[in-house]
Structures are given as structure tokens and as C-alpha cells.
From TrEMBL:
Organism from which the protein derives: Mariniradius saccharolyticus AK6
InterPro entries membership: Azg-like, NCS2
Record field: transmembrane: 12-33, 39-61, 68-88, 94-111, 123-145, 165-181, 188-206, 212-235, 247-269, 346-367, 379-406, 418-434
Keywords in alphabetical order: Membrane, Transmembrane, Transmembrane helix, Transport
Membrane-related topology note: Multi-pass membrane protein
Compartment(s): Endomembrane system
Name of the molecule in the record: Xanthine/uracil/thiamine/ascorbate permease family protein
PANTHER family in the cross-refs: XANTHINE/URACIL PERMEASE C887.17-RELATED, XANTHINE_URACIL PERMEASE C887.17-RELATED
GO molecular function: purine nucleobase transmembrane transporter activity
Highest taxon of the lineage: Bacteria
Length: 435
């Protein structure tokens, strides 16, 4: 992923399909989480599809980048469990808070504040963000495949090697890796299809399928094909009610989280893929950030948590996606599932997770560019890289990176290395972490 490869329409379409297969789980997972906030599951399914299609297609047409935009994981949990259940907002007021965070996000983008923030990020932290994202999506992949599981003694552990799901996952992983090594076109898609076929016997011929039902479908399971769209959440946001003083911290956290999730994703993907302008800034950054902002604003209006750029876009980039056609393809693929969402169960998580694990391995390549023998660069970079997966949060990991870079340079006489914008961001990051 370190160099820009030539591309064509066929490659871009295959890349778009690969990215879609890596992140389609959001159509099921986002409604499952937001339903805990009292929102109708079917209404959130429709809203999720609308946000994913709108954001991704806009990213492709306007920003011309191969990056999918969809409701963000993590921020949807904050919506349901903190904003609604913690602060006591109704889900309509929480949608209003999402809307206002989108407005703030849009203003920051119009006045190029976000570009200034990105320019202030030290190069070593950019490389660390890329690696951290790689480790993060790899960890997500292992979890979704049920290969890494909860362990009361050590927090996490490996599932039984004898489980049919684990064996299927490992076999699919090796087959897909071999296809990549042999430079087979569409290797990741082929790997997902092969693993889907391998998963078919689980629960039918061997193993207990019920033991592996979590998140998206772990085993192949048909549950019908058609579902009527539900537009009940459209324009339900309580825009004025969400502006009450006690709810302002919610708007701030929404804004801060999507700000740094988006920046982290754009910087990380650009560093890993080479999709950068001559000055080293991620390609078409202003257009990409505006797209991110509009997707969040749109999400609040149609009934979902904030939209954001997806780290799973790395799957399509690895497949050769280099233009907006990749994002447009993925965006269009979301639309049919407003009517056919049950079809998502055909591709099991054990298959789609393979793409996340393998792409994660490619995203750590920028680590070779970090000056590991210079402690003031190495320590913040290391903290950024490991805390992204360890805290299960892009924004938390990069926040610690900013704070540690600033503090260490101030304590060791490197004040000139601290950009004023970075210093302000570090203070805001402290406030964010305090919430």
C-alpha cells in the first residue's frame, strides 16, 4: 500500500466491492446499538443505508477519494449509552446534537481549520496513526471472526483451536494471503467468497452454530430476502431542544470525536497508500473533510449517529482503488439493502473479517519511517499506535499522542517543536478525555 498503483474502472469497481464487503456490517450493527436508545431498529437500518450511500457517493464524486463514509462505530455507542442513557437526552434530542456537531464540523472545514490541524500533526504521529489503525482493524477482524474472545483472567484470549469457526477462519486467512502473495486480481473478494463456502457446513454438518451468533452473522444464515424501508426517523431530530446548556458537552464530544476520527482515518490511509498531495497532506483533504461534515449533518436529519470516514476503506485501497469510483461503487451497493437487508447474513463475519486482518498487516508499513532512536518522537508515536487498539478508540489514541508529544517537548526543551495549534489541540484533548 505504500505506492500509488495504476488503476482502471474494473479495478475500481472490484475495490469498491471489497470495501463494501468489509464494512457492510454497519447496516446491522448500527441499528442494534441505537435500538438501545429507544429508536426503531428498522428505521435506523434505513437511516444507516441512506447515510452510507450519501456520504460514500459524495466522497467519490466531490472529493474523488476511494474512501467509504458511514455511521461511525464508537460514536454510535456514545449516542446510545452516554448521550441518551447517561445525560438523559431523548433520541430526538441526541439526533439534534448530531446535527449541530455536523454544523460545527462544516464551519471548521469551510474555514480550513481542520486542514491547519492536520498540518500541525508531527509526521511521526501520522505514521503511528496509520499503524494504529492497522492494528485496530486487525483486532476488530479477529474479534468479529470470534478468534479473539473475552477472557476473565487476561481480558482477551484465543478461542478454542478446535472450534469449527476458528479452523474455518484460519484456513480462509491462509488461502486469501496466498492469493495476495501470488498477486491474483480480486484476491480479497475471492478469499471472502471461498471462506463463505467453507463456513456453510458449520451448524449443518459439524459444530454448533448457536455458539457463534454475535454481531454480524458468524455463519451463513438465510432469514428471508426482503424488508420494507422504514422512514419513521426522517426529520425527527429535535434541533432546538438539543441546544439546552446541559446538553452542550454532548455536542462537544460528538464534534471532537468525529473530528479526530476523521482526521486519523484520512491521515492513516494517506500515509499507508501514498494518496497524498505534493506537500504531504492527504489528497483532496478539504473536499474529503467537507464530505465528512455533510455526512454528519445529514445523519442527524435522517435518523442516525454521526457519519465518518471508514478505516475499512483500506481494504479497497489495497485492492487497487485509487479514485472516487471505488467510493461511488461501495455507496451504490448500500442502497439495495434498504430493501434487502436480510441478504447481509449470506456473507458471515468469519469471512469478511479476513480482509480486516490482512489489510491491517499492510497498514503498519509506515512504522519503518519513524525515528525510533529519538525518544521524543518514538514515545508519543508508540503511545498513539498501541492506545488506538487498546482503548478501542481512534480519537483516544491520537489524543494521547498529541498530549504526550506536547508535554514531552515542553519538559525537555523542545518548545519550538510544539506548533501552537497542536498545543491548543492537546488542551482540548485533555478536556475530551476528562469527559
Amino acid at each position: 500500500m505504500g505506492s500509488i498503483k495504476p488503476t482502471n474502472t474494473k479495478t475500481e469497481i472490484l475495490a469498491g466491492l471489497s470495501t463494501f464487503l468489509a464494512c457492510f456490517y454497519i447496516i446491522i450493527v448500527n441499528p442494534a446499538i441505537l435500538a438501545d436508545a429507544g429508536m426503531p431498529f428498522s428505521g435506523v437500518v434505513t437511516a444507516t443505508v441512506l447515510v452510507s450511500a450519501f456520504g460514500s457517493i459524495m466522497m467519490g464524486i466531490y472529493a474523488k477519494n476511494p474512501i467509504v463514509v458511514a455511521p461511525g462505530m464508537g460514536i454510535n455507542a456514545f449516542f446510545a449509552y452516554t448521550a441518551v442513557k447517561g445525560y438523559g437526552l431523548s433520541y430526538e434530542e441526541a439526533l439534534g446534537a448530531v446535527f449541530w456537531s455536523g454544523v460545527i464540523f462544516l464551519l471548521l472545514s469551510i474555514f480550513k481549520t481542520r486542514e491547519k490541524i492536520i498540518a500541525a500533526i508531527p509526521v511521526s504521529l501520522r505514521h503511528a496513526v496509520s499503524a494504529g489503525i492497522g492494528l485496530f482493524i486487525c483486532f476488530i477482524g479477529f474479534q468479529n471472526a470470534h478468534f479473539i474472545v473475552d477472557n476473565p483472567a487476561s481480558l482477551v484470549g484465543m478461542a478454542s483451536f478446535k472450534d469449527p469457526v476458528s479452523l474455518t477462519f484460519l484456513l480462509g486467512l491462509m488461502v486469501t494471503a496466498a492469493l495476495i502473495i501470488r498477486k491474483v486480481s480480486g484476491a480479497i473478494i475471492l478469499g471472502i467468497l471461498v471462506t463463505t463456502l467453507l463456513a456453510w457446513p458449520i451448524g449443518r454438518w459439524w459444530g454448533d452454530a448457536s455458539a457463534f451468533n454475535f454481531g454480524t452473522a458468524t455463519v451463513v444464515n438465510y432469514s428471508g430476502f426482503f424488508a420494507t424501508p422504514d422512514f419513521s426517523l426522517l426529520l425527527k431530530a429535535d434541533i432546538l431542544g438539543s441546544l439546552r446548556y446541559g446538553f452542550l458537552p454532548v455536542i462537544f464530544v460528538f464534534t471532537f470525536t468525529i473530528l479526530f476520527d476523521g482526521i486519523s482515518t484520512f491521515v492513516g490511509l494517506a500515509e499507508a497508500s501514498g494518496l497524498k498531495d505534493p506537500d504531504g497532506i492527504p489528497r483532496n483533504m478539504r473536499q474529503s473533510l467537507l464530505t465528512d461534515a455533510f455526512a454528519t449533518l445529514f445523519a442527524g436529519l435522517v435518523g442516525s449517529s454521526s457519519g465518518t470516514a471508514y478505516i475499512e476503506s483500506a481494504v479497497g485501497i489495497e485492492e487497487g482503488g485509487r479514485t472516487g469510483k471505488t467510493a461511488i461503487t461501495a455507496g451504490l451497493l448500500f442502497l439495495p439493502f434498504m430493501f434487502f437487508s436480510p441478504l447481509l447474513s449470506i456473507v458471515p463475519a468469519v469471512a469478511s473479517s479476513i480482509a480486516l486482518v490482512l489489510v491491517g498487516s499492510f497498514m503498519v508499513i509506515p512504522l519503518t519511517k519513524i525515528e525510533w532512536k529519538i525518544p521524543q518522537e518514538a514515545i508519543p508515536a508508540f503511545l498513539t499506535m498501541v492506545l488506538i487498539p487498546f482503548t478501542y478508540s481512534l480519537s483516544t489514541g491520537i489524543s494521547f499522542g498529541f498530549i504526550s508529544w506536547t508535554v514531552l517537548n515542553l519538559l525537555t526543551g523542545g518548545q519550538r517543536e510544539v506548533n501552537p495549534i497542536l498545543a491548543v489541540i492537546s488542551v482540548l484533548a485533555l478536556f475530551f478525555l476528562w469527559q
